[in-house]
User: Which sequence fits this backbone?
């Protein structure tokens, strides 16, 4: 049983912004962060004076490797005129900006600061896929690279073990992919904002125009079964099971609970935050779940007094379709071995009882690794304030949303619960 | 032809393991104080923090815990091996080892399939532990 934790004082979210995610030849990390920061400022209902920001916590995984430039805290604080106020970079692989959020919460809860900007940025697309894969492999443990093991392989191995134990198949992974694309279609900031059906139609149109044989897919799954449309990367992971290489940034303004109403009449509150750490693949006896996620979830539930059934919707770290299913189980939304059935039954769709990854998730919204955690919380902000537009979850009395972020091969996992009061 | 895949970079902790491989022995650390078998090698026991250690030799037998079949090479040197099988093998002695399955096609590999070590002498200095189906002798 974990110790039950609480914050020294309450912390509220009063603003959030994110850049469009995608592959941008003409935008660098500073441009992307500026885009997120500008939206964040305009999202604060009663306005925020940047001079009131006490400190910046910035998540970034590996711009050192991708851009040959480290030390991003002060670069970004200079960009947005915060210098000489303190800027601290946090690194937790793909969970880097969830850690920035957490550090910002602690800094306010301790009473030291009142207003803190947290966020993340990553610029990946100016490297080749091989270079990015090598860069991301920095987040695996040293032994995982030498036998030709990379992220698609890690999650492929997880899928093989999960299939063996619970009887799920590739067809079940397709349900996740189709749902993610359907949600991303409604998100203009998503890297792939189109459904699988849209993709099929555009391929058919293209074939017709070029006078090539016109594909005859019966439905979305038929398209995903077609090895020419959806080639194998690392069986059982196919192309459409994997998230893309992305550039992007996101940020969030945190303030002490007692001053939240100076910024907005509609703040969100940090109800629970949890973080866990995990071991390499070789050290886990069972790779069909993530110990670090379970630990993080327990911590966040314990702190908030909430249960999995109280979470009305959630973003989860779907770097691969298989990952989403496992997280649904680790977070307690469904029992172990039941996650894939829940997705198949449509329970996690936008209009289902437990909408998951309404943004399109990492798979379709994009995964600029250091910005992902903050961008998930941006989605929770949009949904809880009923500002998500076309992809707004149709839930009455919307009160509680959450985000789960995972770094590396499960080395760092976080779970954050936000609520309206 | 020169070996172009990534090679191990032994350090003080892992050198005895790679030296063992050269002699076609799979060596693991066992804590002298609490008996915990650990992998990969490290300077202290994560259970009791003792640095007293003995090296034991594994039988080289085990079973496939899980696997994945690469159809896309992330490193050029692996291109000629496609599709290649990467697996986690559960050794008889307990530890899980990341490795490649050789000596069978990707259609034949299964979870829980019994396997045994198959040494690949890749350079003067290094032999790599791969695994093949136990019945293929
Ligand atoms: Zn010990």
Assistant:
């Amino acid at each position: 049983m974990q110790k039950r934790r609480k914050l020294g004082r309450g912390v509220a979210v009063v603003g959030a912004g994110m850049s469009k995610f995608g592959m941008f030849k003409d935008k660098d990390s500073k441009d992307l962060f500026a885009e997120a920061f500008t939206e964040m400022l305009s999202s604060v209902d009663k306005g925020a004076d940047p001079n009131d920001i006490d400190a910046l916590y910035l998540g970034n995984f590996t711009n050192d490797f991708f851009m040959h430039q480290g030390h991003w805290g002060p670069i970004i604080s200079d960009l947005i005129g915060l210098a000489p106020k303190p800027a601290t970079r946090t690194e937790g692989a793909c969970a880097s900006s969830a850690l920035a959020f957490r550090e910002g919460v602690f800094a306010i809860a301790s009473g030291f600061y009142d207003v803190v900007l947290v966020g993340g940025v990553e610029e990946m697309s100016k490297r080749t896929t091989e270079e990015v894969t090598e860069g991301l492999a920095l987040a695996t443990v040293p032994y995982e690279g030498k036998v030709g093991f990379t992220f698609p392989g890690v999650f492929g191995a997880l899928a093989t073990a999960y299939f063996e134990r619970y009887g799920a198949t590739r067809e079940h992974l397709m349900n996740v992919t189709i749902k993610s694309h359907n949600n991303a279609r409604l998100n203009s900031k998503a890297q792939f904002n189109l459904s699988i059906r849209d993709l099929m139609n555009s391929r058919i149109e293209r074939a017709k125009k070029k006078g090539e044989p016109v594909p005859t897919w019966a439905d979305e799954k038929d398209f995903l079964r077609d090895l020419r449309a959806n080639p194998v990367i690392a069986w059982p992971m196919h192309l459409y099971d994997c998230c893309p290489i992305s550039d992007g940034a996101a940020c969030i303004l945190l303030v002490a609970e007692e001053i939240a109403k100076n910024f907005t009449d509609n703040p969100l509150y940090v109800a629970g935050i949890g973080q866990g750490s995990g071991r390499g693949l070789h050290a886990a006896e069972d790779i069909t779940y993530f110990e670090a996620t379970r630990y993080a979830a327990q911590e966040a539930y314990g702190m908030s007094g909430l249960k999995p059934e109280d979470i009305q919707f959630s973003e989860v770290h779907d770097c691969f379709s298989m990952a989403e299913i496992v997280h649904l189980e680790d977070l307690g939304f469904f029992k172990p071995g039941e996650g894939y059935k829940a997705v198949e039954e449509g329970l996690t769709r936008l209009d289902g009882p437990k909408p998951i990854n309404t943004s399109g998730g990492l798979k379709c919204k994009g995964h600029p690794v250091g910005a992902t955690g903050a961008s998930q919380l941006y989605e929770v902000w949009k949904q809880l304030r009923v500002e998500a537009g076309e992809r707004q979850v149709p839930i009455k009395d919307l009160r509680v949303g959450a985000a789960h972020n995972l770094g590396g091969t499960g080395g760092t996992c976080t779970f954050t619960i936000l609520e309206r009061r | 032809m020169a070996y172009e895949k990534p090679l191990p970079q032994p350090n003080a902790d892992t050198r005895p393991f790679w030296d063992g491989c050269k002699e076609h022995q799979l060596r693991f650390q066992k804590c002298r104080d609490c008996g915990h078998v650990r992998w990969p090698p490290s300077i202290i026991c994560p259970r009791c923090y003792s640095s007293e250690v003995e090296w034991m030799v594994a039988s080289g037998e085990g079973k496939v815990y899980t696997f994945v079949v690469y159809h896309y090479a992330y490193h050029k040197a692996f291109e000629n091996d496609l599709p290649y099988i990467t697996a986690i093998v559960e050794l008889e002695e307990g530890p899980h080892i990341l490795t490649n399955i050789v000596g069978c096609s990707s259609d034949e590999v299964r979870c829980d399939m019994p396997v045994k070590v198959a040494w690949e002498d890749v350079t003067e200095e290094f032999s790599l532990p791969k695994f093949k189906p136990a019945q293929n002798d």
